[in-house]
Amino acid sequence: MPTFDTRDHVRLAYEDYGTGSPIVFVASWVLSADMWEYQVPHLVEQGYRCILMDRRGHGRSDRPAAGYDIDSLADDLAELIALLDLRDVTLVGHSAGGNEVARYLSRHGEDRVARVAFISSTLPYLELTDDNPEGVPEAACEVLVDAMRVDRPKWFADRAQGFFATHLGNTVSPALIDLTMRQCLSAAPWATIAFWRAAFHNDGRPDLRRITVPVLILHGAADQSTPAELTGRRTAKLVPHAVYKEYPTGGHGMYITHAAQLNADLVEFVKG
Known about the structure:
alpha/beta; Rossmann fold; 8 strands
């Protein structure tokens, strides 16, 4: 698996498959490149090049003590794109990975990017503030942190069914649920909390307002992790030229439960 060293000497792992127009996948909070196993083979077979990176503290990358703020993570993404000299890129970010995608565009520009897709994103802004009355109180952020410090595996296990919205008939085997939970727990405990806090406090509204390239927003109406009314629908209003699609039975893990539909929407978007 190839790696590269960042400006602050952190070694990051990435994967590179296929040829053609490049699609760069940015994983969710606590998940790594492995989460995209239901997208990459299909897209490579459609003639696209797929690049996936394990962010710092995740997967097979180094586990430093610092650099989990959104600016630094966006800079890591920029270093990979520059290293591979990628052009005409489609950036795809899931959940908190959408923060990195939006910040990359804000900090590094759109010269290398043709379009972006936000899937189940935490954007635009989770924290309750005077100018964000729809947000979540700071205390809720720290309740989550406290729970993970007591029993991190239990916190993820308690939310497994809701992650996939199985109560709506989405079929996910116990083995696949177990695999996803193990992938979540593979992130460094330090990175798990540091990146969560960074994403929770990140105000992505200025970043979204600057985007001029085509945007696709895919969200699940049954997403318990990032409710559509707090995230996806609001993001669509901030990016009026975006295409917004909401899956009625989609949960946060719809990249698995609705993989065929999601893949078709991505291919249609990239071709368009």
